[in-house]
């Protein structure tokens, strides 16, 4: 009977800790209360506590909790590495992935790989992110679209590498999502590759996907390279696909038209941007 009560209490605490969400300090205090109640902390409770640290980038606390787990699993490591990613602690994330997990005989998973890649990407270490991806592929880790999305996002300032990773997805039998296209088009925009942005948007259309963010990045790329005709064409495509334009999109198209000497159209877009800005302010 006492064993059953103990299990129920442990489950109750784990659920309560998870339910506190972003209130990480309260969640950790609740976790500490288990000692006073003489309730054994099981792996589920530890993972719940670590998850609260992940959401608040408290990677030092997450590692402290990890070290206290009798036998951590891949979920534990994934959450701690994610906390490191959010806290820009990429060296710690890589040490956990390549050293600590191996020492603990915990197999690498797509979650831990993706978290480590995000840790590198968040700190603009795209070349390290690619090394993590390559090693995971060499080790035959079963990777999913989330890992590839993280890799593309990590290469946001290296558009040529982002396109290379994007091109590998069909070979891995993975389908690009809206998240994938947003990331790859953003990378191409930063590289001023407006033609690639336009082609990727067409691929999105053929796949039945729509994204205002992707259109915005592509039109911004056109503005930077004075490709006003393509910018206007993309604005028209947004209307045809019922994708709502915002003030930023209109402003980018306006800049492209000004650079191309299309001042009348630029004036119309400026008016549209002003109207949309006012509408956005009213909805806040």
Automatic annotation (TrEMBL):
KW Transmembrane (keyword) present: no
Q: Mind telling me what this protein is named?
A: MRL1 protein
Species annotation: Symbiodinium natans
- Enumerate the PPR repeat regions by residue range: 177-211
* UniProt-listed PANTHER family: OS03G0856100 PROTEIN, OS12G0638900 PROTEIN
Q: Which UniProt keywords apply?
A: Repeat
Q: What is the lineage of its organism?
A: Eukaryota, Sar, Alveolata, Dinophyceae, Suessiales
Q: Does the keyword Repeat apply?
A: yes
Q: Which Pfam families match?
A: PPR_3
């Amino acid at each position: 009977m006492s064993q059953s009560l103990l299990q129920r209490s442990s489950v109750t605490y784990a659920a309560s800790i998870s339910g506190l969400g972003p209130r990480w300090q309260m969640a950790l205090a609740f976790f500490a209360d288990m000692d006073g109640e003489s309730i054994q902390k099981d792996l589920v409770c530890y993972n719940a506590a670590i998850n609260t640290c992940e959401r608040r980038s408290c990677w030092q606390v997450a590692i402290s909790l990890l070290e206290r787990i009798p036998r951590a699993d891949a979920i534990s490591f994934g959450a701690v590495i994610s906390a490191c990613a959010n806290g820009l602690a990429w060296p710690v994330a890589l040490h956990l992935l390549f050293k600590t997990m191996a020492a603990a005989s915990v197999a690498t998973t797509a979650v831990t790989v993706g978290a480590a890649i995000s840790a590198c990407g968040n700190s603009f270490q795209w070349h390290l992110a690619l090394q993590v991806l390559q090693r995971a592929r060499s080790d035959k880790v079963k990777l999913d679209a989330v890992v590839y999305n993280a890799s593309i996002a990590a290469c946001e300032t290296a558009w040529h590498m982002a396109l290379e990773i994007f091109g590998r997805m069909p070979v891995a039998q993975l389908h690009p999502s809206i998240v994938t296209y947003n990331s790859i088009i953003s990378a191409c925009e930063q590289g001023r590759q407006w033609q690639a942005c336009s082609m990727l948007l067409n691929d999105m259309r053929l796949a039945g996907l729509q994204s205002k963010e992707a259109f915005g990045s592509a039109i911004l790329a056109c503005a930077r390279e004075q490709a006003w005709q393509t910018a206007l064409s993309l604005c028209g495509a947004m209307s045809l696909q019922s994708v709502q334009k915002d003030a930023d999109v209109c402003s980018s198209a306006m800049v492209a038209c000004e650079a191309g000497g299309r001042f009348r159209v630029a004036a119309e877009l400026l008016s549209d941007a002003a109207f949309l800005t006012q509408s956005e302010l009213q909805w806040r």
